[in-house]
């Protein structure tokens, strides 16, 4: 179901006590049994969401002679609202619910709270009516609040509000300071204040959005003016959860998402991020979801549109009324919707919208996430906040899987194939009887032990001896060739003392001695060539080095893959018909020419099968990658950085995810992607193997 759209099933309709003309805000509480209306005359009305019957009415206390002149709803999850008054003050009110279970049945008792005190906050000391007002509270760190307002005489004001608890009396002391903001070169129609209390957005009557930087109230400045409406009037605007993204709706039905992006000069600029399917009619209201980056929009054509920011999906766009819709509310758990039309009729509807954040584009294309400078591939499935934007890109995991397999094969293929050829064709039967079983026994080593050793011992060892590791990787083959050449130049009477096929045993002390010399010289080489730290040298030239990286995975996983490649390739080489090799030798070819011209072509289907079996083993490996890579879902092929693979990600996250959730289903989709990857690779491998077998079957 992750690619299904949303459904809205309309239910009962009714006329609540408060008319459409009087309604400023329509809301639905989290248990979906009670609706809330904020009215023009500063009343908060609670009604039964199934029948429309009024349950309770609370007047908001106002100073004598003051009347409401403006209204603003803060982030939906906060339930906080503010009335701007005709005397230059603002009254902040919050509806809450007390929950009790008197007879094993949940009972909700509504009430009003005043988070900034029951006394109104003075915003304009000159007493001018507040034609526009906005409020928000920052709960990160020290709790602080701010009010922004536009007065009747055309001034932009910002009031910082702080509260302090008196430990002796228990009373909350409220203090406020008002600052005047730079003049606005237009007539505003809506203010939007973000939760960080650093940014203020002002929408004017011509479709422009003005961005104020208010991080330092005494030095607040108008940073940018953007024609967000493309010449059209903006008729509805709201923040998505977290107050980072701004959703704008125009008189022609266009919907767009905007947020601040840091540019090359390290300054924030308001940028259009994405557009949604057009409604084709004037957008009248936007209701953001409480815990996800989605929203519901209604328009004058009676349509309801359900959209989601991160995935750029329009999950539903359908007509539900012959009358223009003016208000919409969604429950906190996204299972019920209330919408009101121009005639004041409220309709309750059941909502199904379980997986809006998932789409093929969101999982396989670059996505522009909040707070990022550019669209990126990111996997980050969870966080500790409801404001978190889920990032379900499968590209980092798929690339990490291929990266791990590539470096493992880069290490395992030369050793496995070359060792198989030598063991099967050049080695004596007695030595082969020792070497082959020994390598095959390596396959029985638990990969969790290999991963444990790689993560806790090999990774720190390699980091401390980088010059030695690279010397061994690049100079050891050269050293072996030099030794082999020197051995071939020795007198025959010396070489004859070593039985034919046992020459490889002579390389064991050479490898051990040269490896020891590389380790002993490593500190001196590091000081002489890399300024004392090869890791820091990598950093200085722009190459990131993580202790647990693809090099470690390649070495550790190589030990797990080598036995697979070696065993199959060795059998393929050993079973080449003897009459072919003996005929080649009889015709004057050397043993090496016979290997290249006869043995390898004949055994190539088996060798190729060995490589593909090893690749399949590397793609599906879990514990080594899990313990030796750092498990970071990065998108690069840097050998000195880690990765996260599909299999390791499933192993880590599946036990922690909620059954049936979007995260849960994406992990199963990742398993399907892994299955498809191995199926495609194995199918191609079988096709190539059959062609090789057909080509060389007539030798």
- Looking at this structure, what is the CATH superfamily of the largest domain? MetI-like
User: What portion of the residues fall into strands of 2 or more residues?
Assistant: 25-35%
- Indicate the CATH architecture of the largest domain: Orthogonal Bundle
Distance between the termini: 55 Å
In terms of per-residue confidence, which ranges show pLDDT below 50 for 5 or more consecutive residues? none
Domain module count? 3
Number of strands: 31
Mean pLDDT equals 91
Give a written overview of the molecule.
It is a single chain. The chain is of the alpha+beta class and 699 residues long. The chain folds into three domains: 1-19 and 230-376, Methylamine Dehydrogenase, Chain H (7 Propeller); 62-227, no CATH class; 395-696, MetI-like (MetI-like fold), CATH 1.10.3720. The protein contains 14 helices and 31 strands. It starts with 6 loop residues before the first strand and ends with a helix. The model has no long low-confidence stretch (mean pLDDT 91).
